[in-house]
Amino acid sequence: MTAQTTPRIAIIGAGPGGLTLARILQTRHIPATVFEQESDPDERPQGGTLDLHPESGLLAVHLAELDEPFHTIARYEDQGMRRLSKEGQVLFEIKPDGSPGDRPEVDRTALRAMLLNALDAGVVRWGSRFLSGRQAHDGTYELLFEQGTSETFDLVVGADGAWSRVRPLVSSATPTYTGVTFIEWGLDDVDQKHSALAQLVGHGGMFAPADNKGLMAQRNGHNHIRVYAGMRIPEGWETTAGFDARHPPTARAWLLAQFDGWD
Asked: What DSSP state is assigned to residue 21?
């Protein structure tokens, strides 16, 4: 590559980080290719809601020239936070006051859709599972994909999460278990079907930590609440101790036993 040529840029991962970078580069007329192992944008749920801060997430949205479409998907009304005891007593609360606030919530799925809609056709290559990469003598990078194909790029960006396969190109670091396991589930139509829970969570997030455990819940868009049960346990202990997500009634009984004494 010379100063007069356009660099060939590969971004591994079509999550919020990878897509935001691709969009910002596009606004600067710098082409990039995003490789994503998922077959399409709706292959799996994208996770919980995000709160974007002025110095980071909102700045990135602005640099991507997406302020207006972001305002249509952001939930400024869900910036509240509640800290509860395990008996359900409210210990601390921040209530949304109706003002826009500076840390709006946004669902990951909606954020991803917004970014994808802002990218040119063909920028994202779905169903492209990246396996490994190596640096050539000329400084370029050869990327190997599951289909047996390989491509060469001048710059490779790893946006492929905790178990990144790009990271070995720059670091020997590997993910380490922190000692806390989270089990996640969700409830739909909460205001109609689970009004008591909806009131307990409020408009935002609810946290109830105690006894090296914790229950957390966050309001998402479309009348959905996402719940997390956190436990400080050895890695994999929940499976050997009897938790099995494939059998919901058994899993529910197991979780209730772990949180015995909680409201």
From this structure: H
How far from 13 is each of 33, 127, 144, 247, CA to CA, in Å?
10, 11, 14, 32
Those residues with Cβ within 8 angstroms of residue 243's Cβ, 6 or more apart along the chain or in another chain: 183, 251, 254, 255
pLDDT, one tens digit per residue, over 143-164 is: 999 989 999 999 999 999 999 9
pTM recorded for the entire structure:
0.90
Query: Which domains are seen in the chain, by residue range?
Result: 9-169 (3.50.50.60), 180-258 (no CATH)
CA 46 vs. chain centroid, Å, equals: 6
Which conformational region is residue 33 in: left (phi greater than 0), alpha (psi within -120 to 50 degrees), or beta? beta
HSE, CB side, 13 Å, CA atoms: give it for residue 252: 5
Query: Taking a C-beta distance cutoff of 8 angstroms, is the pair 61, 70 a contact?
Result: yes
